[in-house]
Write a structure and sequence with these properties.
mainly alpha, ABC transporter involved in vitamin B12 uptake, BtuC, two-stranded antiparallel sheet, 14 helices, globular, ABC_transp_permease, transmembrane helix, membrane, cell membrane, transport
Length: 348
């Protein structure tokens, strides 16, 4: 599952003497196992319970996956740089409560203004994480674990016992999670657009490829002139922007937001990215894979509920998937490194 990332910032192995056929290229896609597992899961569940693929059932799966898809896309960017952000659930909670506050404090405020304000709020919180990680030189796991509790504490102090409900927001804002286009809820379409934009940025721009180079070998990336500190800060800010967007859309999707909104969500997000093929040690993976991982985990929950499997087993299966993804990724990394050593010895 892991490819070797060189300081040029590419997420591909060294070119070989021959070109891969289209079928071979598809077979080597990191996202393919996740996609196949998703299709198999849907088919098996549908055979057991045909109502699983009823229009409302499909809509519910997409709606439940939307928020995690956006968060997983942002998390993938951070993990690719060999970091992690455990505070995304708390950022979402702060932005969600802030969104409800805006609608109450400024009646008639345009929805686009609220969305932009939420993204800006998320960017500020993401920048705090990024600055602490890059300037203090402390592992992101430690920093974001701390900011997880700090941001959650701020939300508790701000919200207290206050909650904002569906009646506190404009009807058209709530309709983002109700109206559909070709069967896709509007907020799901927003998530798809976000994933496509981020995927194009990561694979089609120098800055995006730099993030892969940093995750593969930060020291080598510096030698080759990659501005590591600036790029890592950018990754955290972008993740904050997407968490802010997710917080706004969360307010549209659910009936209430309060002090506990987003609690525990960060674990689902990291799990989605890892299961989707984003290497936990950085340097490889894609936001598309992370999005598929989010959809797979959400579908697993819906599928097991549809066949009446106990919730404990739902959590156990997700845990097994995470362990399997990490083990397979490490095995693939070792095999790739071994092939490179053999190839280099032959060249010598």
């Amino acid at each position: 599952m892991t490819t070797t990332v060189h300081p040029t910032g590419t997420d591909s192995p060294r070119p070989s003497s021959g070109r891969r056929s289209p079928l071979s290229a598809i077979a080597h896609l990191r996202e393919l196992p996740v996609l196949l597992a998703l299709v198999a899961l849907i088919l098996v569940t549908w055979l057991i319970n045909p109502l699983f693929l009823a229009p409302q059932g499909v809509k519910d799966i997409l709606l439940n996956a939307t928020i995690v898809i956006i968060l997983a896309a942002g998390q993938a960017i951070v993990i690719i740089t060999r970091n992690v952000d455990l505070s995304v659930g708390s950022i979402l909670g702060l932005v969600a409560f802030g969104t409800g506050s805006l609608f109450v404090a400024v009646p008639g405020i345009p929805i686009i203004v609220v969305i932009l304000a939420g993204m800006l709020f998320g960017a500020v919180l993401g920048a705090i994480n990024g600055l602490l990680v890059t300037l203090a030189k402390v592992p992101a796991l430690v920093i974001t674990l701390g900011t997880l509790y700090i941001f959650r504490g701020l939300n508790n102090a701000w919200a207290g016992g206050t909650q904002f409900f569906a009646d506190d927001r404009p009807q058209e804002f709530g309709n983002l999670s109700v109206d559909t286009v070709l069967g896709f809820p509007l907020i799901t379409l927003i998530a798809i657009v976000v994933v496509v934009i981020v995927a194009v940025f990561m694979s089609g721009t120098r800055s995006g490829r730099d993030l892969y180079a940093i995750g593969s070998d930060p020291d080598a990336a510096r030698v080759f002139g990659v501005p590591v500190t600036r790029r890592v800060l950018f990754a955290f800010v972008t993740n904050g922007v997407l968490a802010g967007l997710a917080g706004v859309l969360y307010t549209s999707r659910f009936n209430s937001v309060g002090a506990t909104t987003g609690t525990g969500l960060e674990l689902d997000v990291v799990a989605a990215a890892v299961v989707g093929g984003v290497a936990i040690f950085g340097g490889s993976g894609s936001v598309i894979g992370a999005a598929l991982g989010a959809l797979l985990l959400t579908t697993i929950t819906g599928a097991l509920t549809a066949v009446r499997v106990d919730k404990f087993w739902q959590q156990a299966i997700v845990g097994l998937l995470i362990l399997a993804a990490i083990v397979i990724d490490r095995i693939a990394a070792v095999r790739t490194a071994r092939r490179l050593r053999v190839s280099e010895s032959r060249d010598v």
